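Provenance

Sequences were taken from public entries as deposited. Structures were produced by running a predictor on each sequence independently, with no templates supplied. The record for Cation diffusion facilitator family transporter from Streptosporangium brasiliense is shown for reference.
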Amino acid sequence: MSDRSTPHEPHHPDHASGGTHGHEHEHEHGHGHGHGHGHGETGGGGRIRALLARAGHAFTPHSHDSADKTDAALESSSRGMRVLAISFAALMVTGVVQAVVVARSGSVALLGDTLHNFADALTAVPLAIAFSVGRRMATRRFTYGYGRAEDLAGIVIVVLIAASAALAGYEAVKRLIDPQNVEALAWVAGAGFVGFLGNELVARYRIKVGKEIGSAALVADGLHARTDGFTSLAVLLGAGGAALGFPIADPIVGLLITVAICLVLRDAAREIYHRLMDAVDPALVEQAEQVLATVPGIRRVGSVRLRWIGHALRAEVDIQVDHQLSLVEAHALAVEAEHRLIHEVPRLKAATVHADPDGPAGADHHAVLLAHR
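Predicted structure for Cation diffusion facilitator family transporter:
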């Protein structure tokens, strides 16, 4: 027995092998679910209405206030766009202030930090485009929607970080070969502190909102900004060394900043690689398995697969249930399993639950598929 349904297409009850329940959800805790189960009703009429609602539910898409959830998703994207706009403006102002001091002082350490801050500000552009594209509805071609646009934006961010590292390293090596005095050291030190302050404020803002809306890309960008803040403090070391009569300290600090940028580049590239390869934290898989194991009626939990689509998770899971259950009863178990997963696994937006009959003994309900595996 099988039940398949999607939020945008009519349900086809002629799929009759297996017991699959797959619907889109974006649950907000505390909202009314509107199942129509008839709770609180007494007497034969209430039981009949509840039975009819349950039977009808087996052949219709399972929806939990989809309008409210769509509004919540749009609000998340809007908050992300607002964060990007504010952080872009803050880092651009920081970068311009530092660039003015670079032109006055000739400090390559400050130049490296300035380039990195400009690159960090520019990362807001591809992310903003990704958030905007990700708000589009799913289509017949892009059936999962456009959430993966964030991963493409991540590639652009990695390229920008790499470009800033290459330019900063080039200028530092060039200054080591041809040393020059650094002027306006007090201004250089002040500009370094401005860089630290601007990055730290942006980092806190990005990380806070990123966690609230479930955007790993935004959180990673916030951590990136925090690292940039500490590299800005390194500019103070270069200025201090130059003030003590060691002008070579400035290009050395410039090289150290280049190394720090490369470390950020490594972490960012690894994060994007994991997203492109559909990697997830194994702890999330274990949590999903534990949630399924607590659902009464589920005898065994089979495979559990999770993947990120933008800043939301999707799940595909296999469960085994009593083979004597009716289609309606097996569907109800799948609904309950999906419901618990969405509410208990962080950032899970939708789950497809495939229910296999457990029995009778010796039966292989997937024998016809063996040649295709």
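The first helix runs from residue 43 to 57.
Residues 207 and 323 are 47 Å apart (CA to CA).
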